[in-house]
Amino acid sequence: MKISIFGLGYVGCVGMGCMADMGHKIIGVDINEEKVAMINDGHATIEEKDIDQLIKSGRKNDQIEATTNPQKAVLNTEISFICVGTPNLPNGHLDLRAIKSVAQSIGSALKNKNEYHIVVIRSTVTPGTNKKVGEIIEQESGKINNKEFAIVSNPEFLREGSAVQDFFSPPYTLIASEDQKALKKMKKLYQDLEGEVLTSDVKIAEMMKLVNNSFHALKVAFANEIGRLCNKMDADSQQLMDIFSKDTILNISPYYLKPGFAYGGSCLPKDLKALNLLSHDNYVDNPILKSVDKSNNIHIQHAIDTITNLEKTKISFLSITFKPGTDDLRFSPALEVVEYLLGKGYDIKVYDKNLNISKLIGKNKTFLMNKLPHINDILVNSIDRAVEFGEAIILSNKEEYISNYLRENPVNDSKHIVDFVGIASQFNIKNYHKIF
Questions:
Q1: Of the residues 13, 83, 230, 267, which is catalytic?
Q2: How many beta carbons lie within 10 A of that of residue 136, not counting itself?
Q3: Cα gap 159→162, rounded to integer Å
Q4: Is 194 in contact with 214 (CB distance < 8 Å)?
Q5: Which helix (H) or strand (E) covers residue 217, if one does?
Q6: In this structure, are residues 276 and 289 in contact, taking their beta carbons and an 8 Å threshold?
Q7: Measured distance CA(353)–CA(379) in Å, rounded
C-alpha cells in the first residue's frame, strides 16, 4: 500500500520503518526540515533499537521518502496516518492543535483528489477527536465523511526501548471507524502482524491508550506503596510482589476488572483496612491504599443518586447479598443502599433467593440485624411480588435466576430497571439505567 505519515517523531518514525519493512511505500511529512532531511539521508529521527537500520534499509530500497509538502503526500498515497504529538496543556488537557492543523492540511489536499482516502489517527487523543477531524476535513475538502474519505482511530501501544518489537508483536491491534470499507482495508494492512486485530466503538479506541497508561501508572505506584511499607518492616518487597504476580487467575488477570457495583463482603474491606492501619502504624503515607475505600463509597453513593434521581418511592431489590451465590450480607454494598433509602422514607421490598433469615447464624446474622432490624417487614417470598411492587427495580448481583426471570417475563414499560452489574443490558427494556 501507499501510505503517508504525518509527524516524524517517535510514533511516526517507528511506523515508517516498520511498515516499509512490511513492503509498503511510505511518504513521511513533517514541518521540521531537519527531520525530513534525516529521513531522506537514511537516518532515523529518534534513538531506538533497530529503527535506524529499518529506515536505512527502507530508504535504500526506495520504500521511504520524506517531505514538508502535505499535498504531495496525500495525492500520492491511499492512507494518511496522523502521528503528531499531543502534549498536556497547562490545565492538563491534551493539546490537539497539531492534529487539527494536520487535518486541515489533509482536507485541503483532498480538494484535488478524486480517489477515496483513509485518515488514521495514531496519536493519543480524547473521545470526540475522530469526529472533529472528520468535520475539519469535510469543511476543508468539500467532501463527505464515510463516503469520499473515512477516519479511523488506531491507538499505538509502543514502549520506548522496544517500540519496533511492540509494533510487530502487539498483544492486539485496535481499529475503529464508522466506515466498513476503511476497516476492511486497515485489517488487510495489519493482517501479518502478531496478535488479533480488534474492532470497537470509536470512543473506546480513543480512550484505550489513556486507560492503558493510567493503569500502568497505577500499578507502578501501587507496587511502590507496598515497597515502602515492606521496607519499614524489613520485609522483602521484591519477593512479595514476585509471588503476588504468580497468581494469574485473580491478581494479574481480567478478574475484578469489569465495571459493575462496589466491592463488599468480609474479606476485602477488612484486609484493606488492616493494610492501611499497618501503613499508618509504620508512618508510611500510602495515598492509593487510603483512597480505595473512598472510591468504593463514591460508587455506592453514585448508585444511590441514580435511584433517587428517578423520583420513585416504591423500590424493589432483587438480591442484596454482597455477591452472587451466597447468603453473606456482611458489608454488602446493596445492603448499604437499602439502609440509606429506608432512612429517607422510601418504601422498600427485597427478594433474594439465597437469603433465608431463619438459617442465618453468627456474625452474618448479627451484621444484618444491626443494619436492618426489621428485615422481615421488607422481605417478600417471590420475585413476582417484588417486581410487581416496585416502581424501580434494582439489580445488584449477576444472579442467573434474575436473568432467567427477565428473559421469560418482559418488564412493564412503566417500571424502571436500575442495573448495578450489567445483567439486563441484553434485554429490550424501555426505562433502563446502569451505573457504569
A1: 267
A2: 19
A3: 6
A4: no
A5: helix 202-232
A6: yes
A7: 11
Query: For the chain, how big is the Rg over CA atoms in Å?
Result: 28
DSSP state of 305: H
Helix (H, G, I), strand (E, B) or coil at 320: coil
**Residue 288: all three cell numbers together:** 492509593
285: which 3 cell numbers? 503515607
Question: Phi, psi (5° rounding) for residue 385?
Answer: -65, -40
What is the spatial distance between Cα 204 and Cα 375, in angstroms, rounded to a whole number? Answer: 42
Separation of alpha carbons 140 and 230, rounded Å: 59
The DSSP code for 358 is G
Which region among 89-98, 367-376, 400-409, 412-421 has the lowest average model confidence (pLDDT)?
367-376
List all residues 6 or more positions away from 406 whose beta carbon is below 8 Å from its beta carbon: 423, 424, 427, 429
Q: Which are the contacts of 285, defined by CB distance < 8 A and separation ≥ 6?
A: 279
Question: Could you give the CA distance from residue 95 to residue 79 in angstroms, rounded to a whole number?
Answer: 24
pLDDT digits (tens, 9 = 90+) for 393-423: 999 999 999 999 999 999 999 999 999 999 9
Cβ atoms within 10 Å, residue 146: 14
Residue 358: pLDDT band with limits 50, 70, 90: confident
Establish whether 83 is a catalytic residue: no
Question: Is there a contact between 241 and 226 (Cβ–Cβ < 8 Å)?
Answer: yes
pLDDT digit string, tens, across residues 5-35:
999 999 999 999 999 999 999 999 999 999 9
Residue 111 has pLDDT above 90, yes or no: yes
> Taking each helix axis from N to C terminus, what angle separates 129-141 and 97-110, rounded to the nearest 10 degrees?
40
pLDDT beyond 90 at 112: yes
DSSP symbols for 253-272? SSTT-S--S---TTTHHHHH
CB 83 within 8 A of CB 15: yes
**φ, ψ (nearest 5 deg) of residue 350:** -130, 135
Contact status, residue 339 vs residue 372, Cβ threshold 8 Å? yes
Q: d(Cα 257, Cα 145) in Å, to the nearest integer?
A: 36
CB neighbour list of residue 402: distance below 8 Å, 6 or more residues apart: 318, 319, 383, 395, 423
**In this structure, what are the phi and psi dihedrals at residue 257, rounded to the nearest 5 degrees?**
-105, 30
